[in-house]
Amino acid sequence: MSRNNRWKTLDSQSVYSNAWIEVEHHQVLTPGGSEGIYGKVCFKNQAVGVIPVDKAGNTWLVGQFRYTLGEWSWEIPMGGAPHSESSSNCARRELEEETGLIAGKITELLRLHPSNSITDERGVVYLATELSEGVQQLEATEKDIQLKKLPFDEALEMAQQGGITDAISVAGLFFLAMNRHLI
User: So what's the architecture of 45-182 in CATH?
Assistant: First the structure.
């Protein structure tokens, strides 16, 4: 079977845009030959997550209320990297902003597409080690953030038991669990 793009765009319109996303409506011809519609959410930033791990094997999670879900969420520290910013710089910046930690060493773990059936969002996860303390610098929208310092294995267990459901966090934690030699 061919892995070439067999979709054909017949018409495309931007139906909504803000500082973070653009929503597009597409009239398409599907690989099967029928006409249809496709909605696409285009992200204006790359999602960047970072898993800090100290010498004792502890990590930090960020807890916050997620308006879109209507519920509290435990996650690895993360944020958005504008296209003008490298993802590694974003990882360092978000780590310090959300946790107050400064990474002496940062290592890319994986790249992923968190929800590729409806968005073009791209994500990347880093490991932060050789940690030192800085100053937490929360943005106005992050004032409800809570930090949880815990052994890495407890964070992994939270993900396995459904206590962490954010896709980038789960993927990053599982990837690192399978590649512990990187810690």
Answer: Alpha-Beta Complex (3.90)
